[in-house]
Every structure is written in C-alpha cells, then in structure tokens.
Write a structure and sequence with these properties.
Elements: E1 6-12, H1 15-26, E2 32-38, H2 44-52, H3 62-74, E3 78-79, E4 92-95, E5 109-113, H4 123-130, E6 152-155, H5 158-166, E7 174-176, E8 199-202, H6 215-226, E9 231-234, H7 241-251, E10 257-259, H8 264-270, E11 273-276, H9 282-287, E12 291-293, H10 298-304, H11 313-324, H12 331-337
Parallel strand pairs: 1-2, 1-4, 2-3, 4-5, 5-6, 6-7, 8-9, 8-11, 9-10, 11-12
Helix pairs in contact: 1-11
Amino acid sequence: MSIQKKKILFIIGTPNQTTQMHQIAKFLDDSFECYFSQIFSSHTAFETVVKTGILNHTIFAGEIKQKADTYLAENNLKNDYQAKVYKNKYDLVVVCTDMILPKSLSGIKTVWVQEGMIDGYNFAAKIVKALKLPPVLAMSTALNGSSNLCDIYCVGSFGYKSYIAEKGTDIEKIAVTGIPNYDNIKQYLNNDFPYNDYVLVATSDIRETMRSDDRIKFIKQTVEIANGRPLIFKLHPNEKRERATVEIKKHTPSDTLIFTHGNTNHMVANCDELITQYSTVVYVGIALGKKVHSYFDVDELNRLMPIQNNGESAKNIADICGNFIYYNGSGTEFLKIHKNIMLTI
C-alpha cells in the first residue's frame, strides 16, 4: 500500500524569488510532491486586467512570468499555474508575498519567505494600511510580510523580525531562518566577471511600478560619485531597457558600460563602490565591505542585514515546511515546540 505524498505549492515571481523557492524545494525529500506557480489572483476582475497587458511590467505577467516559466521548464519542475493544471489538493503553500493571497488557496497552511529587501513604509503604504485596502494597492513591497495572514513567516535577520512585527505581523509567527541567495555572500568573490575597479550602479524598476523617479538626476549623481572612475550600470530586469539605456548614454561618459543581463552579485563583488536605489543587492555590497549608496538609510540597512549562515537558509526553511505540514496546531504553536529545527527564532 503506497503512502499518499504531501503536496506543496510554491508561489514564485521574480528570478530571485523563483530560484529561492527551487532551493527550498531541493531540500524536501521524496515524501513530498513540489509544484510551482507564478503569483496570481483568483479574483475574476484581476485576471481580466492581467489579460489586457497592463501588468506586463509587473511580477504577475509579461517577461517576468515568461522567465519563470522558462526556468521551471529547464529544471523539469511542475508548473501548476493558478493551481489549475494538475487539479491538486495542496497541503501547504509557500509564498513569496502575502500582499495578495488567492482565495482559491484559502484554508491551506501557508509559509511566507522573505525574498530580500522590503520597500520603505511610505505614504501610500500607510494609507492602504489605515484604510484596510488590499496591500497590493501600495504599488510596492512596503507591506510585504505585514498582513499577518500566513501561518509562519521566515525572515532574513533579527532586524527584519522586528520590522515586520512592528508593521502588523505577530512576532511569535516569525522565524529567523536567513534568506536563500543572500546568506553566503562571500561566495560571489569567486567569479569570472571580466571587469574590476569600477563604480557599479544597480537601478530599480521604480517607474515600471508606477512610482516617481527622477532618473536623470540620479544618473548625474552617479557620475559625480564616480569622479572619473569607470562606471558600470546594471539595469533591473523589469525595466524598459531602451529608455533606460538612452538616458544613461546621454548623461554619462562615453566609456560607461550598461548590462541588461548577467550575475549582479558578481558585478558587486568586483566593484570599488556600489550605488543602488531600492535594490537588495546593496546587502551584497555591505557584506563584502563595499562603500554603498541607497535610497534607504544605510545605518538601517546594516541593522536589517540578512544573516550569513554559509548557505543554510533554504534548508532551514525546508525543515520548517517539512515538519509544519504534519503539525495539527497553529504556526505560533509549531515554532514554540520546534525551535530545534531552525537556526533560531
């Protein structure tokens, strides 16, 4: 008599979120069946908006979804988009955001995994929170992790544990596990990126997510900071590349290099100085002792800096998933009992 395997659905998004979820799934043994789906909403009106193409420069559709689908296919991972392909009854859902949780998955155990940096708690986020509107209307990740709707929250540091607790999530639900992709930053020093001794600029998709960004002013500031040193720009994968490239070429020295693809972490490892907007790669710079610039307060970033545990974060999170799926109580009760399976809480 065969034992029915537990089924887990991983909600993915950006390339970073997708690879993080895959890393976690790798640590789950054969007693689990893992499936993946690009983030979605089961609301009919939202699906209609997605079909119009308006959201093609967001995590829900367009190039980001295409990249995720390609990654799943190349790695032979089961793509259960909107949980409609395989008609599964899931035992656990692992999400990259709690700002939008499909109603079709309600009643299923949920584990939230921090992707990286959480956007600043701006005016729009405060209004959305105060009026109890859908968090996605904040048009940023400012409210990610603060809904208190998931059973367990896995964060990158004690700083982030305090941060999302302050924003509304029960602190007893939060486990400090580390963040896959940002927990072993020293590994990026070993790379084959062909350039060294430059100022790296990692841009963000601020305009594509319908927020205000004085990009020309920002570009001119990077030239001032470089002060004659070589400049390299790495564009965010969600940016309108042609527009960004034209702007950079117009306002920077002729020898400035622009990359739309490539390993950003390797670029950070080889740079002299790092300039960011709202990019999580600022943590790579901090961990490697680079001088960094950010739209966020750098002292606050040092407080929030993800722990470095030699790449154990995915295993820590997988251990939580693999044990919680069999647990009959709440996430809070589970974390109190199973402290030994985590790095710390």
